[in-house]
Amino acid sequence: MVLARREVATPPAGRGRGRKTGHGSVRGNAVRFGLMAVPVAFFGLFFAYPVVAIVGRGLRTDGVWQFGRIGQVLSRPDILDVLRFTTWQALASTALTLLIALPGAYVFARFDFPGKQLLRAVVTVPFVLPTVVVGTAFLAVLGRGGFLDELWGVRLDTSVWAILLAHVFFNYAVVVRTVGGLWSQLDPRQEEAARVLGAGRLAAWRRVTLPALAPAVAAAALMVFLFTFTSFGVVQILGGPAYSTLEVEIYRQTAQLLDLPTAAVLTLVQFAAVGGILAVHARTVRRRETALRLVDPAQTARPPRGAGQRALLGGVLLTVLLLIVVPLGVLVERSLDTSGGYGFGFYRALQSADASGSTFLVPPLEAIGNSLQYAAVATLIALVVGGLAAAALTRRAGPLVRGFDALLMLPLGVSAVTVGFGFLITLDEPPLDLRTSWILVPLAQALVGVPFVVRTMLPVLRAVDGRLREAAAVLGASPLRAWREVDLPLVRRALLVAAGFAFAVSLGEFGATVFIARPDNPTLPVAVARLLGRSGELNYGQAMALSTILMLVCAVSLLLLERIRTDRSGEF
Amino acid sequence: MNTTTKYAATALAAALGVTVLAGCGGSGGDASGSEGSEKTVTLVSHDSFNASDAVLKAFTKETGYKVKVLKSGDAGAALNQEILTKGSPRGDVFFGVDNTLLSRALDNGLFTPYEAEGLDRVASGAQLDSAEHRVTPVDTGDVCVNYDKKYFADKKLDPPQSFDDLLKPAYKNLLVTENAATSSPGLGFLLGTVAAYGETGFEDYWKKLKDNGVKVVDGWEQAYNEEFSGSAGGRKSKADRPLVVSYASSPPVEVLYAEPQPAEAPTGVATGTCFRQIEFAGLLNGAKNEAGGKALLDFLISKQFQEDMPLNMFVNPVAKDAELPELFTKFGATVDAPATVAPEKIAENREQWVQSWSSLVVK
Amino acid sequence: MLALDAATVRFGERTALDAVDLEVADHEIVCVLGPSGSGKSTLLRVVAGLQRLDGGRVLLDGADQAAVPVHRRGLGLMFQDHQLFPHRDAGANVAFGLRMHGVSRAERDRRADELLDLVGLPGAGRRAVAALSGGEQQRVALARALAPRPKLLMLDEPLGQLDRSLRERLVVELRTLFGRLGTTVLAVTHDQGEAFALADRVVVMRDGRIAQTGTPLEVWQRPASAFVARFLGFDNVVGATVTGTAADTVWGKVAVPDGSPGGRCELLVRPAGVRIGGPEDGLRCTVGARTFRGHHVAVTLRPDEGPDLEAECALRDAPDEGATVGVTFDVAETVVLPPAGPR
Fold first, then answer.
1. Mean per-residue pLDDT, A275-296
2. What is d(CA A449, CA A382) in angstroms, rounded to the nearest whole number?
3. Best of B237, B255, B261 to disrupt the A interface by mutation (most A CBs within 10 Å)?
4. Cα A105 vs. chain centroid, distance in angstroms?
5. Chain A residues 461-500 with CB within 8 Å of chain C
6. Distance CA A73, CA B274 (A)
7. Domain A80-336 is in which class?
8. How far is CA A372 from the centre of its chain?
9. Where are the domains of chain A?
10. Where does the record place a coiled coil (chain B) (predicted)?
11. Helix axis angle, A210-229 to A77-110, nearest 10°
């Protein structure tokens, strides 16, 4: 389908399509604004308004904006240290992630090997797991008694390396998916053509593949930078008190010290930084969508040949094993390692209504139910909001709409505590007194899910040939009907992929769930955190068992996604 | 019905199905119960709040009020959220402000004074606002250094008992504590040293403690589960610090959550290193159900609740007539002279103490 | 049936349709012929309602269509690259239009089968679109466009993507089929062979304007301008001045048919009218390339002066490359065209 569109460019109609052919009409605009009404209302009400309110609470005294505070806060040496460290570790993490994950992207794109699908799902699991769960496992690898310690006596748990490597662990999949996804669709024959024209292997790669890949690499690097710039759990758990990022500092200033002015300034700084990253990202993504000759990924992958390729594959598999599989394996191992030897004792304890005669902190099976329920509702909201936004953004249009595109990504870069506390002071009037309602949790989770939905669906929606819609229209389908008959079935797979991602992300979401007041329906990550918050072997073991369950649920949903992955989706 | 509609319908039904199923499995359904109704009293608290269903049901039976519990973050975050929503609170009663944060709550005028029934049964030492009764003490807990019994037995070394002991070379590189800026036990331990060595002397103490190899991690979870050799997590990750800042109630919890139950707790408490935390509850200013809130406050210090509390939150009751469960009497430690610092003093100096502590120990 | 009244479309600076007037009568097959960029596809899109007019009107059965959206115009359009719905099988593609018009399922199935039979694909209803060959896709696309019995069927480069032999066969089939069904057809193509084989009437377009309208025979025999002539593949065009029954050209004097207007003009000599004789006969030329075209040979002749000439001759009469020959012109294959204007 994509191929067809790229190969046949009808000169006049082709040039006019999408820009001029009626979409620019008043009617088209009305439809677009209609579609955008829900996403705009959603983001306005549940994101912009709360965030502005909490920032305003910090920067305004007696109705007067105190912008002088920005300068005051930003001249504090401790804050400058935080800013410097935040930027430095994000840059270092991004570089390290690219260094380690780009060979992986190549291997996943170009080689066929048994278990590839499974492995691709496995490397994505960290991305959707909450840091509370992963911190433990990661310490086990890098820290005392980890394999580095056992083999060479190297311990990284107290160094900044722990943070950097954990960031690689979390973001490996971002690079493999974004870059590898495109790489696998680049026609290898273009490189071959360059070889025939006399370019050496390296020169051919540098002149043909690299330029085609560069926007994807840039997009992936920016996403990794964004995620590491706003890193919270990793820095808190692995870095210890000596290291603090902007996000950690915002949390501390808001939740612990209630120093709202400082928090507001930091939020603005982070906002500006994230906005900048997203603006650059939006530009590279758009460049990426410019015509590239793409082919079916199945055609480009082949089993590795020769010692060099096998060594590369081996190296990548070893990296994945050490960096991702071992930490995850440690969780599983610990969930089975009871005082009476290996067994399912902790899992059985999850089911028993009453452990050791005392009331359960969290009935664990109930937590699974809660998690599934929240994730289902969050996914539904994310699909509706994200789907409508994607539909509205399908038609390329002016800078306003493009700005909206980037705006949808902003929640990824805003601290959960900012949003959570913002909810508190804004959603307090009927009919929107949602502060004590359970719906707040899935709403907050949906804020994180929407960008994934939009980013997954948009490329697919945009790849739907506009003339299919026209064909339907000529055959008597109204615009709405044409959308339903043509677009919807074509993007169904992307929709499922988006749903799965939103589901997995909601399932692992921790921040919003813990900062938002809610009736006591703890989710899996919250239950894990609570179990870890108590001494006692059973608590610890059950935390590991629940983490393993969470990991399995995430892995299974990701594996299902692998099966229905569409050509153009998988931005993350 | 055409194919597309069918797909859409199937997807929708599946999504709804999951929701409904999850609703059945979990307790999400009852969360959406009617709000602000006379019959519901809402308790806002931190994540550690826990009470037996039976006890809450008994309250409903006694007073006719159903208790709805909202939990929001750790103790600090929960209180700060209350301060943010001052005047338009989410609930009727707030539980979980301790003596380290008490002044912040009182200065912000969060609570309506109410003298709970049965307050005469409550230890007077815990009644820090006895003049105005804006808050009612509910429980106490002690932040103390815990030790790994096996380690000290193996080394044939006596575990430390006091703050001074921790400076001894025998205990070099053995203690792990939490960040006083972000962790409640971490702050408690710092305040304990302030109480013991005075506002000027504590800095000197920490210098020495640092020289003796104290390790600081961010939170209790990392300290206890990752670094402390006496915990389940610590044993698995070959942790090498046999001393950790935790609670006096941690040893009984270790016993409770072990299978099979050991005859003796694997950890002990250095009773000379304790700082006492007292937790309070108060009637929120602007509560929709004041009468219900008052009834709930009465209930929180009732014998029934006070006796239920230890095994749910692992704290000590404040009511003198409440009996401690056997688990506590058998495996817990008796802390005779815990350190304390007056709330006003904490409020006044907290920032500064934490700051100088940070620059001494963390940087 | 269909009438365009000064239809005008602009894309920014460029005028894609420049006040085009066109009428299509019931049961007529009209082919719009033109090079790419001449505005012929835009013409179809305007009629279908896929392209907004910047001026003029589109009338169907006398009714202005300005306010009628695409899906209510009741037209059929077969896209250049078929645009079959990839997620539906062949039968569902054919039945799509009927479904949009609320036709019952049984009736739809019956009619889809009937149309697939008609286009020569009996029993192909359950086949996936991706599994069809180019020619089969073509037929499905045609069946799909025909299914709702459109009052006007529009074809955009209907046979453009097919190989030559298939194209030649299909074009005959199509004409027969349309004749039998009495379908009114408006087709666009850049291939004059296709247009002449299919159409009752041919409309040649150039730069958004109509350059010539007429039956295939008329257009073939009397191209209205040098542009049309060249577009039809006739390259033996030269500037001339007619006096009586002869014209002065760089090739020398050429006889023209009786009654040709006098004065400046462009002169066309069809390749069949270029006679090759001995070097002493007429215009002296050197033989350039020879191209075999099945039944005849196209010979490029290089006169000492003036543009190259193309001649058509029998296989065994073809002169050797490099030979010097003499050329005379057959008056029956000579056409006087209007002089090249400013445009």
1. 68
2. 6
3. B237
4. 17
5. 465, 467-468, 470-479, 481-482, 485-486, 489-490
6. 37
7. mainly alpha
8. 19
9. 32-63+350-572, 80-336
10. none
11. 140
- Residue whose tokens read 């008490």: B102
Q: With H, G, I as helix, E, B as strand and everything else as coil, classify residue A412.
A: helix
What does DSSP say about strands C55-60 and C2-11: parallel, antiparallel, or unpaired? antiparallel
CA distance A12 to A28: 21
B272/C28 Cα distance (integer angstroms): 107
**Which helix (H) or strand (E) element contains residue B220?**
helix B220-221
d(CA A352, CA B183): 32
Residues C55-76 have a mean pLDDT of 91
Backbone angles phi, psi at C337, to 5 degrees: -105, 155
CATH number of B3-140+278-326: 3.40.190.10
**Would you give the distance in Å from CA C295 to the centre of its chain?**
23
ipTM value: 0.82
Check residue A568 and give its pLDDT: 44
Q: Where are the domains of chain B?
A: 3-140+278-326, 142-276+335-362
Neighbours of C176 (CB within 10 A): 10
Smallest CA–CA distance from A377 into chain B, residue? B19
The alpha carbon dihedral of A196, A202, A207, A213 has a sign of positive
Radius of gyration in angstroms for the set of CA atoms belonging to chain B, rounded to a whole number: 23
Smallest CA–CA distance from C47 into chain A, residue: A474
- Residue A244 in tokens: 């603090």
B-chain residue closest to A544, CA distance: B233
DSSP state letters, A192-228: HHHHHTT--HHHHIIIIIHHHHHHHHHHHHHHHHHHH
Strand order in the sheet with C263-269: C252-255, C246-249, C237-243, C263-269, C334-337
Convert the pLDDT of each residue in B287-323 to its tens digit.
Answer: 999 999 999 999 999 999 999 999 888 899 999 999 9
Residues in chain C: 343
What pLDDT sits at residue A69?
84
Using the predicted structure, report yes or no on whether residue A13 has a pLDDT greater than 60.
no
Q: Vertex A241, ends B245 and B180: CA angle to 5°?
A: 45
Q: Cα(B24)–Cα(B31) distance, rounded to whole angstroms?
A: 12
